[in-house]
Amino acid sequence: MRLTAARRRGRGRHRGRPLLTDRWREAARTRLTPVQRSLLITWASFGVTFGTVRIITHGIRGGWLPWGNVSVGGEHLHHYDFGIALLACLGLVAVRGDEQAVGHPAVAAAYGCGTALICDEFALLLDLQDVYWAEEGRLSVDVSLGVLSALGVYLTAKPFWHEIGRITRHHVLATAGHRACTAA
Predict the structure, then answer these.
(1) Of 23, 35, 85, 141, whose CB count within 10 A is highest?
(2) Does residue 1 surpass a pLDDT of 50?
(3) How far is CA 12 from the centre of its chain?
């Protein structure tokens, strides 16, 4: 991710300083190996997908979303079905061995999504019964997978997150200092 010529000339800057997102991108480019980037994207997409699926399923069940369950021929399709299909497709990418595709961020994101779709309905797969809304253990599964996802995102690239924290603190302090000087 290189800065465009327009950004190098000053566009994409705020009052002469690089945008915070540009500085984060640069930290990712310089601080993360390709494997760390792929793992980070995988863990982040797992967490986002898992959380989104939980919200959608609660919305469908609660009736506050405008759509319902997906069915084909009167048969309900569980979201783990889509996860299995997605992982099967990714398996073909891996077996084919196309190096550009294997390390591509889209593959990492799709892997995280597919895994989350399967993990969210793991109890159903384990018992082969639709126990998705059963009280026992549901909260602990949700919390466990959420913590696992957040921990994976952090531990995959710990030095990167420390650098992001340092960059963000410096940016916030510089912005606050600039505002204080212009207000005085």
Answers:
(1) 23
(2) no
(3) 25
